[in-house]
Amino acid sequence: MDIQLPTFWFKDNLRLVVLLLCFVVAYYAFGSRRSKLGDFPVIGNQDSADFRTALEEGCRKYPGSAFILPTPIRPTVILPANLVEEVIREPEDVLATREEVDDRFLVKYTLMTADDHMIRRSVNLITRNINEIMDDITDELDLAISKVFGADTTWQAINVHTPILQLVAKINSRVFVGLELSQNVEWVDAIINYTVQLMTAVKKLLDCPAFLRSAVQYLLPEIRTIHQSLASCCRLLQPILEERRQNLAKPSFKKPADMIQGVIDYAPQGQGSILEFQGRSQMILGLASTHTTSITLQNALYDLAAYPQYLQPLRDELEDMIEQDGGKLLTKSFLMLRKMDSFLRESQRMNPIDLLSLRRKTKIATVFSDGTAIPAGTSIAIPVSIVRENDILTNPGVFDAFRFERLAEAEGNFNKYLYVSTDGNSLGFGHGVHACPGRFFAAIEIKFILAHILLYYDIKFAEGTRRPKTTYYGTNIGPNLDVEIMFRRRSKDT
């Protein structure tokens, strides 16, 4: 006998059926992963606007032990600082850096994918030829510095976020792709906006179930803007890339030390001469360098304004070095600016750009020396905050601009405490083979801009204004973007 249910049953219970299906999908997607990680305590909530409080609570409650931070995409197992060296020793087929980045930034929707080998070798090309490109940086600064900070010898209030971002984008573009595009507003805007659109798109995609993202991507204006930016970059690059191809066919042509050439030379399977690949690579290189450098520089300016006692010692050191070098800023000059280097390392220590470092995805089940067992397919990381809590620093919660200069002098080891140096106590640039390859160029760029500001401007916060509190979103950290700094052009006789 057939059993027939009334049609209203389907209508009334359709919502229930959908909810049950969603529950089943969620259970199998997340329940099994949670059971595999069941031995670790979970700190915080996945819906948190930021994870700073949860991370601090976990580090306080479970010192020397692992715990789970319920980050988007998948939970992250936070490892203790004593496992830093073990994490960096594991090869990519055990602890994967690239795959973790791909997952976190949803690269199949946001175009943020590139060959790591190509990126590193291209960046190293710039670093090796830094002396040759110093004139380009100087020219770009000379063009922009007065526009950004003005020529008025009376105090002016300036919100530095957008001007600094554009200045860094122009300098990077000058070095990466040449003068023509560094002065092209459409190019600079496309490079800057790619990061903003990408982060917004990722946030929106994370808010919907994974099985819907392939469809939802076509509804997001940010994804459309990303593709439009790529199209713009390709159009602007086309005549430059075509001219480069023609020149490379000439035996007498000397290859420029820029990112266009780096991508041509080091891209896999000769893809560097393909316009779309070149355009996408330049967007990714811009993303990796522009916003991080501008955030670092903005934090440094906030610290200069907040701690005026350091302004004159930094300026004296700089002017002495210029005098020794015959009145000109040289690359080697920046290597000898111990106080500036220490100041930047301290600023980064107090204001990193992320709560977490050494992010990896386990490719296979991994057991560390302390017995911590991590199943395959798990995200892991180590807190950057260890540089504010380790035992080697006196008063680690206090901003002390020249602490690393003193440590270097006491130990007779300046290389150990350089701004660009990495170790288990300094994770701002990562550590090991996957440490940021662009940190050497970024350090020169930041020091060059900071030197110009020190030489030509006085800087302070307005009366009654203090250094703004840092903002946290997810695991990301950034400066408050709404605060103004006071600048005054120094008189010509100084």
Key traits:
five-stranded mixed beta sheet, Cytochrome p450, 494 residues, 3 domains, alpha+beta, 20 helices, 12 strands
Which class best fits the helix and strand makeup?
A: alpha+beta
Helix share bin: 40-55%
The low-confidence parts are 1-35
Strand order of the largest sheet: 1-2-8-5-3
CATH topology of the largest domain: Cytochrome p450
Transmembrane segments: 14-30
Protein name: Cytochrome P450
Family: Belongs to the cytochrome P450 family.
Binding site for heme: 436
What would your notes on this structure say?
With 494 residues, the chain is α+β, with helices and mostly antiparallel strands. It folds into 3 domains: 1-30; 37-104 and 359-383, no CATH class; 105-353 and 391-424 and 428-489, Cytochrome p450 (Orthogonal Bundle), CATH 1.10.630.10. The protein is 54% helix and 9% strand. It has helices at 7-36, 52-61, 84-89, 97-104, 107-110, 116-128, 130-149, 161-177, 179-182, 185-206, 213-216, 221-248, 259-266, 275-306, 311-324, 331-335, 338-350, 386-389, 403-411, 439-456, and strands spanning 67-69, 76-78, 95-96, 156-158, 356-362, 366-367, 373-374, 379-383, 457-460, 471-473, 476-478, 485-489. A hairpin with a 6-residue loop joins strand 1 (67-69) and strand 2 (76-78). Helix 10 (185-206) packs across helix 14 and helix 12 packs across helix 14. It is globular, with a radius of gyration of 25 Å. Its cofactor is heme.
How do the strands and helices of this protein lay out in sequence?
Layout: H1 7-36, H2 52-61, E1 67-69, E2 76-78, H3 84-89, E3 95-96, H4 97-104, H5 107-110, H6 116-128, H7 130-149, E4 156-158, H8 161-177, H9 179-182, H10 185-206, H11 213-216, H12 221-248, H13 259-266, H14 275-306, H15 311-324, H16 331-335, H17 338-350, E5 356-362, E6 366-367, E7 373-374, E8 379-383, H18 386-389, H19 403-411, H20 439-456, E9 457-460, E10 471-473, E11 476-478, E12 485-489
Parallel strand pairs: 2-8
Antiparallel strand pairs: 1-2, 3-5, 4-12, 5-8, 6-7, 9-12, 10-11
Helix pairs in contact: 6-13, 7-8, 7-20, 8-10, 8-14, 10-12, 10-14, 12-14, 14-17, 14-20
